[in-house]
Amino acid sequence: MDERGNVRRNGGDRGWPDHGPWGNACNMLLCVLAVAGIGLSGWAFAMEFIELRDRGESRERITAGCGGLIDPDPVLGLNGGTDRVELSDRYETDLGELSSGCLVHRVGDPGTAYGHFSMAVVRYSSEPGAEEIVHDWTEIDEWEDEPFRRPYGNEEPAPGPVVNHALPHPLGDGGLGEYDEYKVTARAVCAKGGEVSSIEASAVAQYGERVTAEDRRALAGLARQAADRAAGRTGCRADLPRLPATLPEPGKELGAVATTGGTCAWYRRFLATQERGRLPDLALSAPAGRASDRDACVLAVGESETRRIYPGFVKSSGYPQTLEDVLKYLPWWVKTDTYVGDGTRGLRTGRVGDQTELTPGTAGTDSAGTWWASSVCGGRPALHVLWAGYPYDRIAADRLETLFRAYVDDATGRRGCTDVVVPDAADFERS
User: Fold this and answer.
1) Which residues have CB under 8 Å from 147's CB, separation 6+?
2) Peptide bond before 391: cis, by omega within 30 degrees of 0?
3) What was the pLDDT predicted at 181?
4) What does each C-alpha distance from 258 to 152, 255, 271, 276, 299 come to in angstroms?
5) How far is CA 69 from the centre of its chain?
6) Tell me, what's the pLDDT at 12?
7) pLDDT value at position 24?
8) CA dihedral sign of residues 353, 358, 361, 363
9) Distance between CA atoms of 92 and 250, rounded to whole angstroms?
10) Cα(first)–Cα(last) distance of the chain, in Å?
11) CA 329 to CA 78: how far, in whole Å?
12) Closest CA to 329 of 308, 351, 306
C-alpha cells in the first residue's frame, strides 16, 4: 500500500482512478444522484401504491353504497378524476324501497370533502297508489322550480332575467329519458303483467363546475346502467334504447319567438295566426323528442315589452312592484310542461292555500296561476300543464285559454295522444 492508500499487486495499482479535482467531483455527484434516484423511485412507488389502495377502497365504497347498480370507475373519473371518495351515510340504495340512492363526496385535504356525484332510483309499482305515501308527492310550482333565478341575500342582481335551469333535453328521441345541465335521467318502462311499472334512475353531477361533454356522456352511461340493472333485479322486463351519439349542451339563453323551435315551436306557429298583444316575445326551448316522457317550454316578456305593458297594467291594478324591480327580480313569464307515464303520479300544486292534485283523466286549475289538461299517450296517462307567474297570470288573463289549448293540441298531436280533456272556459275566468 502506498502513501495514498492504494493497494499494490504484482507491481500495479488497483485504486480509484484519479481524474483530477473536477473529475472526482463529477463522480461524487453521480453517486449522490444515483442514491437520490433510488430514494425517489421508492417514494414514487410508495405514492403509486397509496393511490392504488385509495382507488381500490373508493371503488368498493361506490359499489357498496350505490347497490352495485353502477360501475365505480366512471364516477371516479368525473370532474377531472379523483382516487379518494367517501359516501354519505344518510343514504342507502335499496331497491325494496320506492326511492333510494347514494351520495358520493370527493375527498380533498384531510378533513375536507366536496360534492361529486349522486344517484337516485325510483321504482313505480304496477298498482298506482298501492305503495305511495305523502312523501311521494311532487309540487310542480315550488319557488325553486320557477324558470328564473332570484338574487340571493346581498347578491347584485343581473341586468336582466337569468334562467334558473336548462329545460329537459331528450336522450335521442326521448324514449330512454332526458337530461339537463347537470343531471341525466334514464327510464326503463316495464312490460305489462309484472309488479313493477317502470324504473327511473338519475345520475347527477354534484360539483359546481360546468359539466363537460365527456362528463355528460359519463352521467348518461351511469343513468342508463343503473336503470337497466335495477330493472333486471326487480323483474322489470324492459328493452332500453342505446345512448344517442351526441348529447348537445343544454342552452339557457332566451331567444326571439320568431326563431324558436323544438318544444316552443307551437308558440311560434300560434303567433303566426294571432296578434301578440301582451303575450311573451321571448322563448327558451329544447329539442322535441317524439317519445319524450317529459318536456317543457318557457316564454318570457322582454325588457322593451315590459316597459310598454307596465304603465297600463299598474294603472288598472295598483300592482305594488316598481318597473325596476320587475326588470331585475320579477320577470313576467309562462311555462308549459308535459308529463307522460308514471311521472304523472303524485303531481300537485301547493304554493298557496290548499294543495291541488293533478289527476290523469281530469282537467282544471288551482285558481293560483296553474292549469292542467290530460290525455292518454300510447296507452299511458299524460298531464299537460301551464304555469303563469304572478302577476302575469292577471296581465295575460284574456289570452291564456287559447294559449293553453294551442299548447295541448301540439303536445298531444306530436305524441298521437287520445282522450284529451282540457279545462273549461270557467276555469280561466275564475283565475
Assistant:
1) 163, 164, 165, 284, 298, 300, 333, 335
2) yes
3) 96
4) 33, 8, 9, 12, 12
5) 19
6) 42
7) 56
8) positive
9) 30
10) 114
11) 34
12) 306
Which SS3 state, helix, strand or coil, does residue 14 take?
coil
Return the C-alpha cell found at 206. 354534484
Cα-based distances in Å from 101 to 86, 119, 235: 14, 5, 19
Strand ranges for 62-112 from DSSP E = 85-87, 99-107
**Collapsing DSSP states into helix, strand and coil, what is residue 229?**
helix
Which residues, in sequence order, are bridge partners of residue 297?
A: 336
What per-residue confidence (pLDDT) applies to 13?
43
pLDDT at residue 28, rounded to an integer: 63
Profile the chain (431 residues) by mean pLDDT over runs of 10 residues. 41 48 55 54 52 83 96 97 92 93 92 92 85 57 74 70 90 97 97 95 95 98 98 97 96 94 97 95 95 95 94 82 86 96 88 78 89 96 95 93 97 96 87 50
DSSP 370-428: EEEEEEEETTEEEEEEEEE-TTHHHHTTTTHHHHHHHHHHHHHHHHT-EEEE---HHHH
b/e per residue, 371-408, with b = 16+ CB within 10 A? bbbbbbbeebbbbbbbbbbebbbebbeebbbebbbbbb
Q: State the Rg of the chain over Cα.
A: 31
Please report which helix (H) or strand (E) contains residue 206, including its range: none
Determine the residue type at 300: A
Residue located via cell numbers 296561476: 369
